[in-house]
Write a structure and sequence with these properties.
mainly alpha; 3 domains; three-stranded antiparallel sheet; about 65% helix; about 10% strand; globular
Amino acid sequence: MQCRSALLTKKINYFCTKFRNVIRQVIMQFTRALFFLAVLVLSQPVLLNASGHAEHAADSIQNTPIEHSHSEGHEAMTMKEEIKAHISHHLQDSYGFHLFTDTETNTHYGFPLPVILIDNGLQIFSSSKFHHGESVAESNGNYYTLYHGKIYKTDESGFMPMHDGHVHNEKPLDFSITKNVFSIMVLSFLLVLLFMGAAKSYKKSLVPTGTARFLEPLVIFVRDEIAIPNIGEKHYKKFMSYLLTVFFFIWFVNLFGLTPLGINVTNSISVTFALAIMTFIITQVSGKAEYWKHIFWMPGVPVPMKILLAPIELLGIFIKPFALLIRLYANITAGHVVLMSLIGLMFIFHSWIGSSLSFALAVSLSLLELLVAALQAYIFTMLTALYFGSAVAEHEHH
């Protein structure tokens, strides 16, 4: 009995030591992550863009006597409008990467991207000619101006006639390399390099090394938890390439959207529309006779109900991809708006309590956004696999 008691005590002490070590490691990792996220939050584009205006306005407000309450309210409103404008600018696609602005010298820092237009031939020039919408760009005798993120043809003076608040200038065909397009190209190239490196590692050994050690568990997860349960073991292999591409692409662009670079690929409805339309096309092309039969003439259902259900089922074909694109677009956009709004509140509040609370909420939301980045990739991939599974399913005959 004494031996058993000593052995039990030894085991308890061992597990207590292991538990303390695990807790210590968790605390250390959480502290590091918290520090990283704090730096990440403070370096968000809204701060890079608004810091000069916000700090200057805050100083002027704090140095204003108490009796000037009207001026104080005016400065606060100006700051709110600036932050709102910067959030709106951050959510839009652009013709270059704008990092920050020196408000004292009105100098913009970033790098331009090529503008490619079809208007009296091919027109190619740098977006730096627009000077962030302040100048008219000239190319082969043609003049263009940038207005609300769109390029319009104009004259040398930049005259733009307005009617009922709408611009009536001609818009050339625009094939420019915008910020979103450039980001997609870079991230796609990065994904190709990662998977090619992983594939090469398996030629040397079946034990994963390098990037394969990171990618293999995720690939197995997509196969075993998404593809096979929703599509079936018989047909899942031919859809794996697309499912893996969609999963890693959405996940990576969502993660890069949390960096100070201001990349918001899935925040663009055109991108989510392209992803959804590809899912839609693959689903319809892969659909078997049973799939179409269950849409237009559902077996085992009375004829009057078949006539009633057929239009509904047909409409559902288009509703499914629409739900895909709206879900991804809305969740990512809402996350960016809320996060940047919390960061902006740090410059609106003039007390350490309000600013500290805004900072804590922003850090907490940044942690949540890391989860949302992966969660949205999982949901989009899972629903895509579900649609593929319904298209290739072999239904029992009624």
